[in-house]
Each structure stands twice: as C-alpha cells, then as structure tokens.
Batch of 4 targets.
Target 1
Amino acid sequence: MNRDTLLEILDLARWAPSGDNTQPWRFEIVADDRIAIHGHDTRAHVIYDFDGHASHMAHGALLETLRLAATRFGFAIDWTMRPDRPDTAPIYDITLIPSALPEDPLAAFIQARCVQRRPMAIRPLTAEQRAALVSAVGPGYTVQFFSSFGERLAVARLLWKNAYLRLTCPEAYRVHREIIEWNARYSTDRIPDQAVGVDPLTARLMRWVMQSWERVEFFNRYLQGTLAPRLQLDFLPAIACAAHLLLRPKQPQAGLKDHIAAGIALQRLWLTATRLGLHLQPEMTPVIFRWYVQANRQISRQSAINEGAVQLARRFEQISSTQPEDGFAFFCRIGYSQVPRSRSIRKELGKLMMN
C-alpha cells in the first residue's frame, strides 16, 4: 500500500456519523499500512455525551466505516485499543491487510447516508426491509419496531415530553446554542439551520431567542416558546415515518468496548437503511436521559428536569415492554423521503490529521 491509497481510505472513512457532527477523532499515519486513531469525547461540556458513550459509539461507527472503505481498495483491517489509555482519550491502532475479498456492498453508501429530520412518508416497511435491518446489526443485538399508528403516536407523545425537558434544561441550552450553523445549507462541523427541520420563520425566531438563556426562559414561560419546535421537530415527524427502531443489546453494556460495538451495529443499520432507499433520524435524547436515570445521576441543577427524566424513562420502558435494567443502545425513526437538500458534511481530511 502507498500513502495515497491510505489517504483515500481515510477520506472516505471520515464520513462516519457522530453526535451533532462533532467528529471526535484525529488520524495519525504511523506507516504505509498502519493508522492510529486518536479518539476523544465531549462529556465535559455536552450533556448528551453521558460518560462519553455517544462519542464512543461514534468511534465504533468510524471503525466500521474505515473497514468498509478499506474493502473498496482491496484491504481488510485489524484494530486494537492501545492499553493503559483513559476512556476519555482512547487510541485505536489500525493495521491494513491485503485481502482478496470483494468490496463490501455497504461501502457504496458511506457518503450518501445522512439525517432526515423532516416528516417522511408513512408507507410501511416491507418484510424484506425489516429482515435486512435486523440482519445488519449482528447477533449481539435485537431490533424492536414501532410501526403501527398507535405505536408511532405513543413514541410521538414520549418525544413531545422529552423535548420539553430538552428545551427547558439550561445545561442543554449551552449545547443547542453551539451546534447550529445559521444561514447555512451545509456545515463541516455543526448542523446547518436548513437541516434542523423547522420552517424559516421558526428558524429565525430560534436564532434570536437562543442568543441568551434569559430570552429562552422568557419565551418558554410566557409565550409557550417550546410549542413550535416540539411540534415541528418531535411530534409531527414521529407520526410521519414508517417506523421507529430501538436497537437493544442482548448483554448489558459494561464499558467502552460495548459502546464501540454498539456504534458498529448502528452504522451497519444506518447504511443498510440507505441501501434500501430509506432515510433515518436518530432519536437519542430519551436513551441518553435514561442512561442518567439508570446510573442515578442528575441531568440538571433543576430538580424538575431530573424528576421528568425518571418519568420519561419509565414511560419509555412501558412503550417498549422492557425493564429498568434493560439496555438501550440506539433509537431512531425511519421512512421514505426524498434526499434532504441540506445536511452536515465533514471537515477536510487535512484538518483531521495529526501529521
């Protein structure tokens, strides 16, 4: 292998998904056939990155995307975690190995995979599509579908309540303020406002309100400021889809490796959906808030937020017929739609390199 081929593989792999397009990784070329991926997480300043789990899942998605990209150029990969590293800054050592196996069919969809935050068609998934999605995640996971109108309505109500917690939580506000790139169709390191999923008037109002927490509190308290975004971003899209999918590990997720494995599974699920002509939107906040509840940890300095999260977790378990100790890895909605006209893209490869 030469360096140019290695760079082509990395250039494709960088399209892996990450929470709010944070891209929590940097690449180091160690030799012509070896890469070190320097991972990090955002737990110190992002409420949604509970114990770094979301970032660790992104690392797993990156490793799977790298594996898929390598097959396009006739290589397999072997990866290990460098020992004695904190889980806040893991390093993954990658070796590329010549392989006679053909290109993985999912490699063709790496760049096409994207998020659809707007309403989608409610046409049901076919039995073949369901089977392909279940097969994609591997034997360590189950996929639970919520597809009938009643099930989608139950999820919509869950997300409606969840969105109220999200939009009234001061710790979450700091994240929301930073992740949107305004007046943008594409964003290399955030979410462009045109991809958020609200109408232009609501987007302009959101931009003005989000300039300070005092404005957010005023609008929420006196002008029902959460109603429009909750309706447009949560409730209506939850109804307008083919189904919601809950990815559940068969064994408890005990540490970094388990969340990496979940990230590998979710990327295969997402790319398979893209291959099937479907679009997907992560709905991770209820899962993440439930992680806090399971660990008996506070989300916010406001007690009402923490109490609401406990109620939300119990409702999620009722909807999914699960127990409080059961693990949830990934939650999303899926359906049919045109390709979104606006999306997050990625930092140029050069900006992700350490050498």
Target 2
Amino acid sequence: MKRAAIMILCAGSFVAGAAAAETCDERADAKNRDWAKSKHEWLASVEHKQDVELGQTWCHIWETVGIDRLQKTIDFGRVLFTGDGLHPSIGSIVPGSGFAGGLVYNLERASQSVPLRFSSSVEARGSYNGFWEAGGKLDIFGTRNSATDQHIHATLDAEHYELPQMTYFGLGNNSSLANETRFRLSQTTGGGHVDVPLPGGFQFVTGLAGLRNVQSRAPGFSLPSIEQKFTSADTPGLGVDTTYLVAGGGINWFYPIAPTIQGFATLLTTEFRAFHETSGAPYSFRRFDVTWIGRYTPPTSIDLGTISETFRLVDSWAPAGNSMPFYLQPTIGGMDINNIDMLRSYRDYRFRAPSMLMFQTEYKHTVWGPFALFGFYDAGKVALQRSDIGISHFRHSFGTGFLLQLGNLPVMKFYYAWGGNEGTHTTYTGNTNNFTASAPAGVF
C-alpha cells in the first residue's frame, strides 16, 4: 500500500507538471486565437508576438527545476533582450564607461513587392558616470535567388556618443603610465556602406560617411585633465574640433562560402579610407586596415574546442602639412574604443599612435550551453612612423576568462590577463543588443 501511494503521488506530480506545461502553451495559443479574430497592422502584430512569447517563456521557467530551469531562464532572456519589438539594452558603451542601460527597438520586415528584406534598430543607452549613446541603423538585404546564398547588403546608420572621461597616456609605444590623463570626446557619425558579393567568396565594400568630433578637457576627476600634461606640440588635435567627409572601400574574402561549425574557416578584410577634413584644419589623413581571422574546430563528435588566430594591421598617414588627431588614432591595451580586445594585460587605450600591428591566439571551449572558457596570447605594438611597423619590440599578454553567448554572439565577456611590465588587468565587456551601427571612430 505504501509503495502504491508513493507511485500515485509521483504520477500525480507528473500529470500536474504536464498540465502546467500545457497551461503555459494553451494560454499562449488562446491569446493568438483571439488576436487572429480581427485584422491588425503588422507593427501591432510584432508587439503582440513579443508579449505572448515573454509570458510563455516566463511561465515555462516555473514548470521545471535544476538545470532545466536554468535553460528555460536563458530562453526567457533571449526573448527579453533580442528579436523584434521593444527591449531593454544593457552593457558597456566603451571601455571605461561602466555599466550602461537603456532601450532598443528592433524591427525586421520583408518587402512584398521587391526581393528585399529590411532590418532596423533604434537604441539609446546611458551609464551611471555620464556616458551615453543614441542612434539607429537600417540594413537592407537582397533576397533574390542566389547559387551561393550571398546577397547585396546595404546599411544606413547615424549615431551620437558622449564620452566624458576617456583615458590618454601620450603617444607611442613608450608612453608613460605616470602620464595618465582624461579628456572628453563627443562624436556624431552618419552615412552608409554597401557590401557586394563577388565570385569565389570575395566581397566588395564601399562607403561614405560624415564624422564630427568635439574634443575638450575633462576637469573634476581624480586624474589630471589632458591639457595639464600635454600640448598641441606632442598631441595633434588637442582641443581642436574636426569635421570629416570619409570615403573608402575595400575587398573582403571568406572561406568557406557556406557557413560551417566545424573544420577550418577564414576571413580577410581590407579597407582604405580617406578622412577629408572640412573644418578644423590641418587634420586630413588616410587609413588602411587589414584584418585576418582564422578559426579551426576539429570535426569530431566530441567537442574539443576552437582555436583562432587573428592578425590586425593599421597603417595611417597624413598629406604634407597635415596630421592625424590623437583621438582618432588606433590604440592597443585592454580594449580599444570599439570594444575589441588588444594586448589585454595592459590598461584600456594604453598605447596610441597612427599605425598598429597586432597578433592574437585564442582557444575557446564550451563548457555548457551558452557558457564557454577561453585562454589567449596577445602580442602587439603601435608606431608613430610607418617605418617603425615591424615584428620587433612587441609587447605581450597572456590570460584566461569566460564568456556568455546567445546564438553564437557574445553578450558578456570577462577575463584576467598578465604579462608585460605593468601588472595584471581584469575587466569585462558586454552588450545584449550587439548594436551594429558604427562604433566611435569606426566609420563603417
């Protein structure tokens, strides 16, 4: 009798759990049936779908326990932070901005009259220490039948960044840590670019944008303002506002053409951009960027992780009588202004110059679901003159960390790095929206 009572209780618990699961889905189905009884505008339908999915995934959390509950919670987070409609947006704006939060509105829609698909995003975020950004973008994708499933992709975007306390140590590979100062930067960009697929995995990219920079001192912080230690003689563009028309293009190549999870994959991007100054002379310059990324995942049934190699080169030069403003020069150390990891044992923005060379090796292994561990080695340098670009006198970093990824996109990254001669560096970065408009100083 006792055993029978236990079995009945267990069976009752199972049935109750199944009923609860059906209740979540039945409630969602009922909302959808009621909604379908009348006609609605497509925008209202987007918001209805988001509302139903939020309630449904939230309900599913409480049906389960243990590891299943964690998986359902992750699924709820995916619905809460991504997809069409209005969502919260959290994560850093630039290194040093601290935690930031705001709202993003995403919409995606296919044209019924022409073979095009539109994807748009409008976002605004602010941090507790005064950093904020606001902007929007529109992606237009061709959808005509293609043998390689590659299509023309055009992007229009505009954004504004307020960065009240950016870090500056001076120029060059031998700048002093003792010269750390702060400066303020406001930046507005607007423009667009087009990616045109070519045979063999090649892609032609061209773009045109406007760029406005307002640089000023940053008093009132624990560290000196930039003008207290530097002058325009050693820091080009100090205290100067600039406006640019930026035009350029390049060739990209990726292999294989069809996306693959295992095996070898590589991406090579090249881009030349002319920054023609229209106010704030004389600060016109040219910039050439090359990035190569190789990735290898062993094609086995057992997850052995992924090894990736990255090479980055930036070569900048200015016409006679001109120079490149310090706030548009590439940096290595920690993360750069675009939240790209570079020489991670050093402080963010630690070394700055017109040209830069960087190598990275990283191993990543997924430990469970969206969580992964990684280890890395970085080597790099900056160069004030083009003739100084070379593979000697590199600075080095080693480290390890973990990341959270949703849909193979990292939404949070934490690492601890050592090496070099300036101690260790621990930091994190994150962005739930993966906002793809031009980052500060990026300009397509």
Target 3
Amino acid sequence: MRVRIYTTTYCGYCYAAKRLMRQRGIDFEEIDCTSDRAARDMLVETTGQRTVPQIFFDEVPIGGYDELSALDRSGELPRILRGEQAPTAIT
C-alpha cells in the first residue's frame, strides 16, 4: 500500500504522525507543502481540509494525526496496511 503524508516544516502534528509511522515500520512518502500552494489547493479540493498533516492510503484520504492515531489504537491500522480492511475516507 502506498502511504503519503502531506506536511509542513512547522507542524507538530506532522512530526507526531511521521514518528508514529516510523515506530510502526510504515514506509511513507512525505510531500512538504510548506511553500507549495498547488499542493495545499489540491488538499483542500481532495479532502476539504486546509490543515496538515493529511495522510493518504493509496488514494484514500484518511485524515491527519488524530485519525491515524485512532486507527493505531483500535488495531485497524495494521489490517488496513496488510490489505485486509479498506481504509475509510474522511468526510
């Protein structure tokens, strides 16, 4: 599964999300949108959110750090990453 995280250089929740993914051994691609207006606009179009981090499993936007952490606590995160459970898009 492809995991992407959109971040900024000044976001504490971005650092927390990356730390959690590293602790769980999750490979991810980081897209720094600190100065990338097009990336930020795409996030708003895709997720309806202007905040970061925004995390995608394949092409499904799952939310930010709070949502990632909730998936981890519930035990759903490893099932999603193994393909046993589909990720749920934020609404």
Target 4
Amino acid sequence: MHRATVLIVDDDENVCLGLRHTLRAPEYRVLLSDGPVSALRQLQTEPVDVVVSDHLMPGVTGLEFLKMVRDRYPDTIRIMLTGHADTETAVKAINEGEIYRFLIKPCQPTELKVTIYLACERLELERQNRRLLAVVRTNPELMKRVEEEEERHRLRRRGEAAGS
C-alpha cells in the first residue's frame, strides 16, 4: 500500500525521471507530467496527495499551475521546485499558491525526500483532524465538552498573558 501519490510536473523529462528515481520507495506512487495542461488532466482522473512543480514551463508557469491546483484540489500539498528562484517568485508562490515548500534546483535527494515525508505527515494530520471534527460535530454532548475545554484554555491564556 502506498502512503501517498506524488505528481511531478516538469517540462524536462530528465528532471522528471531523476525525481522519480529519487522518490523510488514502496510508500510513494510517483506520477510524471510534462507540463501543467497534462497535469491538470491527470488530477481529474487520479487522486494525488502531493504535487511537485517546476516554475518556468511553456504556456503556464508553475505558480499559475499551483494556484489552479489550490483552487481545484485544496487538500493537495503543493511544492515548487525551480532552478530560476528569485525572492518575488518565492513570495508569490507562498502567498498566492499557498505552497508547502519552495525548493531550489538542483535539490539534494535527502532534502526532497524529507520534504515529501513531512508533507505526507502534515496531510495525514489534516485528514485525521477533519475526521475527528466530523465525529465531534455529530455528537452534541461531545461538541459541548470540546467548546467548554476551549473556553477554559482561552481564559487560562488570558490570565497568563495578563500576568506577564
């Protein structure tokens, strides 16, 4: 069983193949796409957990593509991997594409593996939180207890802040 499906989007076939080789492990199912248009088609038919996208590609930039992924598949973790990094692109990617990480090519294999691992951890926690929230919301008594506990924590934090 795969832990996550990772979609790599880059117009350079050698980069795609190299990244797939780096991520070869039983816990990942790695899909490749040569650009944003084909990647969007894949996303319509394949559930994807993590998208790793280049920035400078013909037609649509990685930033524009990751913004589309965010809008259409908000639960998918987005990572930008580019050899053309500048501060403005990084800031836009983070603010507009709401990416998880911004990596620079050439990326060390260990850095990519750790980034994907941590992205999967985050995704699993978010999914677990949504499941727990759904359970709490369907149980009025439990919901009331959670709200009371939250209020106690808020009051405690206010008291600690006032004492500082």
